[in-house]
Structure formats: structure tokens, C-alpha cells
């Protein structure tokens, strides 16, 4: 579904390519996302966490963990080398935290997730305000309704359009 937008290519999944979907955090631990690929326009790597829920469940807590992991991995990579320009996407089949919905990708929510983290993802490091600013622009939150599949390009249609758009040649 995401690839049918023609703006994203997801080459790796955690089931067949776990090492490609795994990144290091500040605590030295490894975290694996469901999918990895890239966004053509920004030339950014994209890590996707996909949740198939039929009710709210523990999704709000899981999403907080996702935010903390995304921050910790980005901060770790910045301290190790340089800004990786990674982007992180949470795709769910069921909306959650609806009273907070408009704020869920804001820096305040990322900071709150870090402050609530009990797993030690910061490894004693202070929260870096500059990294928070970066992350607020790099977190995506999408709700996917299964009926959207009816409006998704088929693989054959997608190949025809990609050839005309030549996004891959510009990536």
C-alpha cells in the first residue's frame, strides 16, 4: 500500500531481512522495525512499524515506545557518525489516543515518551532539544483502512507509472 504512492520503496521486512531492519539505540541495544526502505524525494531511509489492531488495546503505550526508540536510535547515530536523516512511520489499522491525535507526532509527545521510558533507552544521556526538533519532522502517523486496498495500484499499474515518473532514477 505504501509503495503504491510511488513515493516510497520498502525493500526489506523484519521477517526476511531482520539485520536490515535493525538499528542501535543509545543504550547499546538493538531495535527491529517491521519494514525498511526509503522515501524518494527526501532520499531518507524510512523505518516502518506496522500494527494491525481491531481495537485500541495497548497501542498508545506501544506508540510511546516507538517514539522513544526512534529518538534513541537517531541520537545514537548522530553521536556515532552524523545525522542519518532517518524517518519513522507508525501505520495502524485502528486509531488510538484520539484526544491527543493532533499532537502525537509533536516534539512534546516525543519528549514525554522519553521521560516515561523505563527501559533505559537514553542510557543516562540528557534529552537533546535539537534532536527532538529533528524527530518532530521525521515521525509519520498513518491509519490504514483495509478498504483503501480497493484504491491501490496493482503491481502492474505501479510498474507502468514508476517507469513514467522515474522516481527511482532520481533516488
Secondary structure layout:
Elements: E1 8-13, E2 22-24, E3 30-32, E4 35-39, E5 44-51, H1 59-80, E6 87-92, H2 107-116, H3 129-136, E7 139-143, H4 155-165, H5 167-170
Parallel strand pairs: 5-6, 6-7
Antiparallel strand pairs: 1-4, 2-3, 4-5
Helix pairs in contact: 1-2, 2-3
Plain-language structure description:
By secondary structure, the chain is of the alpha/beta class. The protein is built from 5 helices and 7 strands, in the order βββββαβααβαα. It has helices at 59-80, 107-116, 129-136, 155-165, 167-170; strands at 8-13, 22-24, 30-32, 35-39, 44-51, 87-92, 139-143. 27% of the residues are buried.
Enumerate how many helices there are, as a single number: 5
DSSP strand (E) fraction? 15-25%
**Which residue ranges are poorly predicted, with pLDDT under 50 across at least 5 consecutive positions?**
none
Structural class: alpha/beta
Sheet bearing the most strands, described? 5 strands, mixed
**Strands, total number:** 7
Instruction: Choose one word for the global shape.
Output: globular
* Helix proportion: 25-40%
Order of helices and strands: EEEEEHEHHEHH
Q: State mean pLDDT (0 to 100 scale).
A: 90
List keywords for this structure.
21% strand; two-stranded antiparallel ribbon; 5 helices; alpha/beta
Summarize this structure briefly.
The chain has 171 residues and is of the alpha/beta class. It has 5 helices and 7 strands, in the order E-E-E-E-E-H-E-H-H-E-H-H. Helix 2 crosses helix 3.
Amino acid at each position: 500500500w505504501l509503495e503504491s504512492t510511488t513515493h516510497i520503496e520498502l525493500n526489506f521486512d523484519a521477517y526476511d531481512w531482520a539485520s536490515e531492519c535493525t538499528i542501535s539505540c543509545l543504550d547499546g541495544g538493538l531495535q527491529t522495525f517491521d519494514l525498511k526502505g526509503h522515501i524518494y524525494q527526501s532520499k531518507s531511509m524510512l523505518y516502518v512499524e506496522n500494527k494491525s489492531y481491531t481495537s485500541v488495546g495497548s497501542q498508545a503505550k506501544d506508540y510511546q515506545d516507538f517514539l522513544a526508540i526512534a529518538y534513541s536510535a537517531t541520537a545514537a547515530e548522530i553521536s556515532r557518525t552524523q545525522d542519518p536523516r532517518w524517518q519513522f512511520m507508525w501505520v495502524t489499522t485502528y486509531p488510538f489516543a484520539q484526544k491527543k491525535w493532533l499532537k502525537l507526532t509533536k516534539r512534546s509527545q516525543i519528549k514525554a515518551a522519553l521521560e516515561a521510558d523505563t527501559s533505559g533507552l537514553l542510557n543516562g544521556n540528557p534529552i537533546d532539544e535539537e534532536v527532538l526538533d529533528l524527530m518532530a519532522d521525521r515521525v509519520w502517523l498513518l491509519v490504514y483502512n483495509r478498504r483503501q486496498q480497493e484504491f491501490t495500484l496493482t503491481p502492474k499499474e505501479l510498474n507502468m507509472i514508476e517507469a513514467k515518473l522515474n522516481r527511482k532514477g532520481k533516488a
